[in-house]
User: Fold this.
Amino acid sequence: MQRTSLYIDGKFGAPENRNYFPAVNPATEEPFAEVAAGQAPDIDRAVRAARRAFDSGDWSGLDGRQRADMLRRVAQGIRTRQKEIALLETRDNGKPIPEAEWDVGDAAFCFDYYADLAEEQAGRSPEEVDVGDPRFQARILREPLGVVGAITPWNFPLLMAVWKAAPALAAGCTIVLKPSELCSLSCHLLAEVIDAAGVPPGVFNLITGTGPEAGQALADHPLVDKMAFTGSVTTGRKVMQAASAGIRTVSLELGGKSPFVIFEDCDIDKAVEWILFGIFWNKGEVCSATSRVLVQRGIFERLLDRLRSATEAIEIGSGEAPGVKLGPLVSKGQYDKVLGTIETGKLTAARLVTGGGRPANLDRGYFLNPTIFADVPTDSEIWREEIFGPVLCINAFDTEQQALDLANDSKYGLAAAVMSDDLERCERVAAKLRAGIIWVNCSQPTFTQVPWGGYKMSGIGRELGRAGFDAYFETKQVTRFDHNECWGWYLDAQE
Ligand code: NDP
Assistant:
């Protein structure tokens, strides 16, 4: 059975405690690899290596064009191993192979994109600022922020790591990555690719291990300058608490309960297609999933009928099997949690339209039928809380204002979507939806070039786009007194 290592200071090796935990294939419930269980001493070695690498200037002091060359080699390395990485991701996480291949392609593109920004940054001169006093000259410089601690989840194991590693490395930072213990294997391949690309020792470090042991030790480490986290609100709060103790910068990408508002002038087939994609791709284990759908009353029952039949036709099975569109949930824990929430939903006044349990033909693996609840009480757990599985809640509305009120009535604000043939209406609604990502006439397409992040309890900060690059810099002013005479506050200016 394959055994993974930690990657610290340019070397692959065993954790100090020599402990490993199994990686389990959620389609078969069988272990298929052993993952190194790093703990606080390993985190400490990794952070110290990242600190040395940063302070030495071997990476941060390079011209952005040199870093860009290296990052493009990483992108190429990912592309060369695309099939292998995608297969491993599917075995570890359960997602269908084509979806894993999208992730790997996006990961490679992300390195290329931030390589371009590193190059562009290198060609820029510092901004000179007129401070209104000719005796002074002021400049604004951008400097890499330092050592980054990245903690990432299991739903897009490679991609969430790359969304942090690519801009951080492009900016000149060094990084210690702690992926989720549930899905660590693609990050191990990422470490191999980065190593093969010739990135200097200590610049990128990988510590696999559990959240409470390795993750918390990273969040607490005094030599880390910034924590970049994606995951649950509960853990995000812990990371933020640790950051507050050390007065460290933090970026948080947390959960969502994103609404999708469908007006009755739209094409029902197009609506059904995007509703399905919005909730069932990646098994609904998506922070931006549009899991609350609001449909204008005039088409509600017709759309629901079409949605039910299309949902029941979704092919469920191992992500490795051709044609499968819905794989198993990531783990027994997540399966039990989602099933438990479905059972809670059944006890409410909501109408169970389809799904609600395990597919009859699959007795092994963490499989669930895609589930739809309609007429859902808006104070129920299934309407208000993130389920993070293939469970959709759908309600009717009458007026635009009512749709907006229902859509915005959430503690979250990661994403929202609107569909109508009337583009003016779409723009009006988009402007009033309180979320960081708005999709018009679609749901979920995600592009590296535009910022990603949420309002309210969905997080702090932005990843991707230029904002995701800027997040890895400090801003420094250099102000020079350029005058022959003495300043003249304590000493006479004429002396
Ligand atoms: P977590 O927030 O616990 O996991 C996210 C990351 O944090 C993982 O790497 C985890 O490690 C790590 N972690 C856990 N505890 C700590 C800690 N004390 N200090 C530092 N890092 C820690 O999410 P769960 O896996 O428990 O999922 C629970 C729910 O969170 C899901 O059902 C979903 O609702 C939401 N979620 C949201 C995500 C998003 O993209 N916004 C992604 C994942 C989950 P490890 O996995 O090894 O414990």
